[in-house]
Amino acid sequence: MPELPEVEVVRHSLEPKLRGSRILRVVAGAHPADVVQVPLQDLAHAVERRRIVGLSRRGKTLLLELDSGALVTVHLGMTGELTLAKPGEPYPRHHHLSLVLDQGRELRYRDVRRFGRIGLVRPGEREQFERRLGPEPFAPELTPETFHRRLHQRRRAIKALLLEQSFIAGIGNIYADEALFRAGIYPGRPAGSLSLKETNQLLASLREVLAEAIARRGTTIRDYRDGLGRPGENQAFLRIYGRAPGSPCPLCGSTIQRITIAQRGTTFCPRCQPVAPITAASRSETAGSSGSRTG
DNA sequence: ACACTGCCCTGCGAGC
DNA sequence: TGCTCGCAGGGCAGTG
After folding, report:
1. Which nucleotide in the DNA or RNA is closest to residue A157, CA to C1'?
2. Which of A42, A52, A164, A213 is least enclosed by beta carbons within 10 angstroms?
3. 10 Å Cβ neighbour count for A35?
4. Taking Cα atoms as reference points, which of A200, A170, A168, A165 lies closest to residue A182?
5. pTM of whole model > 0.85?
6. Counting runs of H as helices and runs of E as strands, what totals does chain A give?
7. How confident is the model at residue A292, as a pLDDT?
8. At what angle do helices A144-152 and A196-215 cross, to 10 degrees?
9. Nearest CA among A266, A255, A231 for reference residue A13
10. Is the CB of A77 under 7 A from strand C?
11. In sequence order, which residues have a C-beta less than 8 Å from that of residue A136 and are 6 or more positions away?
């Protein structure tokens, strides 16, 4: 499931190969209309004979910057793969679209579940693209204070908000669970109930799990590969996501639980992430037991 | 504006 | 062995 770290690794792996390349033509594979958000002729017209001047990322979306000022947006959804091949190599199953480039290269998009999207942002449309997305997790202007202020206005479960791309961009199910676990925050806590201290901890944990995942070239549960076809290494370091309910917490040994929040499977440790925040008083009350009293 | 539901799509693994 | 079924989930449209 490509989230911010995986998209960043794809970006990093492809950028040196794509920068300066000229797009010769667009080739449609299977079900192109399922993944391409504009008519193919419009896409072809906008990209053919254009040069790729850069590759950037916004949230989970990869942006091919063209010399016309237009952007080709690539969202990998659940199972999208953007890889380089040579023209003439056999197409894999579930190949949907290719950009044939100069210098004997072809940028290919395949997506088993077709949840991904390829779009076009014309010059002048950047602002409306940008308006749909919340801040980048690493943006310096995203301080604990501003984050706390925005959380305070919302009543949804904190995890549901972390998954909302218009609230903060780039977080998906894996890193939401990992960050909440590290911060010791119950995923179902109403967002507005987080203290400034907890918000500070959550933001720090988010940045930690994302930075570590990027350094390990992403998390490959099943399908994820970078732009050169290589899997990531971060899956071996996940602390809570993907663990079976009933198995022991790697930190405290308590029984891991699984619930549903915002239609997403949510794995957490009821002891490390208590429903009510741990206070000095409740800590001494329940020390050494699995007491679940509220206080 | 916000909260929430259903839907899209395929592969995989459990169960019979 | 071979079948069915439930599940995985990001984002968007639709509803209240």
Report:
1. B3
2. A42
3. 23
4. A200
5. yes
6. 9, 10
7. 36
8. 120
9. A231
10. yes
11. A58, A59, A142, A169, A170
Tens-digit pLDDT profile for residues A57-73: 999 999 999 999 999 99
The answer to whether residue A208 is catalytic is no
pLDDT, one tens digit per residue, over A135-155 is 999 999 999 999 999 999 899
Please tell me whether residue A120 adopts helix, strand or coil conformation.
strand
Q: Does nucleic acid strand B have an atom less than 7 angstroms from the CB of A156?
A: yes
For the segment A162-199, what is each residue's pLDDT rounded down to a tens digit? 999 999 999 999 999 999 999 999 999 999 999 999 99
Residue with token string 């899997």: A231
Contact A94, A110 (CB under 8 A): yes
What tokens were used for A82?
A: 């953007």
A231 a catalytic residue: no
- Residue reference for tokens 């920068």: A19
Q: Could you give the 3-state DSSP secondary structure of residue A151?
A: helix
Q: pLDDT at position A295, please?
A: 22
8 A C-beta contact, residue A154 and residue A168: no
**CA A23/CA A10 separation, integer angstroms:** 19
Contact A261, A160 (CB under 8 A): yes
Which residue out of A117, A216, A264, A277 is catalytically annotated? A264
pLDDT tens per residue across span A73-125: 999 998 999 999 999 999 999 999 999 999 999 999 999 999 999 999 999 88
Specify whether the CB–CB gap between A187 and A158 falls below 8 A: yes
Return the DSSP state at A295.
-
Q: Is the CB of A217 under 7 A from strand C?
A: no
